[in-house]
Amino acid sequence: MKYKLILLFAVLLNLVVQAQNRIQHTINSDWQFFKGYTSKASDNVNWEAVTIPHSWNAVDVMDDVPGYYRDTACYKKEIYVPASWQDKDVYLVFDAVGISATIYINGQLAGAHKGAYTSFNVPISEFLRFNDNGNCKNQIFVVANNTFSEDIPPLSADFTFFGGIYRDVHMVAVDKLHFGMDKLNSNGVIWQSPMVNTELAELVLKSAFTNNYDQNVKASVRHIIYDKMGKEVLQSNQKYTASKGEISTIEAQLKVRNPHLWSPEEPYLYRLKSQLIMDGEVVDQIENPLAFRWFEFDAEKGFFLNGSPYKLIGTSRHQDYPGLGNALEDGRHLRDVELLKEMGGNFLRISHYPQDKTIIEACDRLGILTSIEIPLVNRITESKAFFDNSETMLREMMAQYYNHPSLIVWAYMNEILLRPPYDKKSEAWKKYLKATYQLFSGLENIVRENDPYRYTMMVGHGSGNDYKEAGLISIPKVFGWNVYTGWYDGKSSSIGKSMDSKHRLCGDVPILLTEYGADADIRIHSFAAERFDKAVEYATDYHSEYLKAFYERPFINGMLIWNLADFSSETRTETTPHVNAKGLLTLDRLPKDPYRFYQANLLKKPFLKIGSKEWDFRTDLAKEDGDTFVEQEVQVFSNAKEIGLWLNGALLGQADVIQGIATFKVPFVQGENQVLAKSTSNEFTPIDVAIIDVNIIPKQLKNNPFPASGMNISLGDKRFYTDYHNHENWVPAQAYTAGSWGYIGGDVFKMAKSKRQGYGSNKNILDTDLDAIYATQQCGIEAFQFDVPDGSYTLVLHFAELLSDKEHEALAYNLDEGGKIKDEMLERSFDVLVNKQVVINQLSNKEHLVPEKAIAFKINVIVENNQGIKVQFKPLKGKTILNGIQLKKVN
Question: What count of other Cβ atoms lies within 10 Å of the Cβ of residue 523?
Answer without folding.
Answer: 23
